[in-house]
Write a structure and sequence with these properties.
Elements lengths: L2 H14 L39 H9 L8 E2 L6 E2 L1
Antiparallel strand pairs: 1-2
Length: 83
C-alpha cells in the first residue's frame, strides 16, 4: 500500500466519520509516520515520529494483520472515550 493510497483512504474516513479526534498512520514498528489529522487545533499536526508500540491497538493490529475496531478506551489526547 502506498502512502498516497493511505492518505486517500484517510480523506474518505474524515468524510464518513465526522466526529473523529485524530487520525494518523503507523509503520510496522509502531512509529507514527504522519502528523495527526484532526479538526481540533490542539491535536492537529502533532505526533510525527512518536512511538505507539506500547499501545494495545498496535499489538492487536500486528497480531491480527488487519485493521481493527477497538473497544472504547480513554484517549491520551483529549481524555475522552475513543475507538
Amino acid at each position: 500500500i502506498s502512502m498516497d493510497n493511505l492518505l486517500e483512504a484517510i480523506k474518505k474516513m474524515k468524510k464518513n466519520i465526522p466526529q473523529f479526534e485524530a487520525i494518523y498512520v503507523l509503520d510496522a514498528k509502531g512509529k507514527q509516520i504522519t502528523k495527526n489529522i484532526s479538526k481540533n487545533e490542539k491535536f492537529k499536526d502533532k505526533g510525527l515520529g512518536k512511538s505507539r508500540i506500547d499501545r494495545a491497538y498496535y499489538y492487536r493490529v500486528v497480531r491480527e494483520k488487519r485493521c481493527v475496531l477497538t473497544n472504547p478506551y480513554p484517549s491520551l489526547l483529549g481524555n475522552t472515550m475513543v475507538v
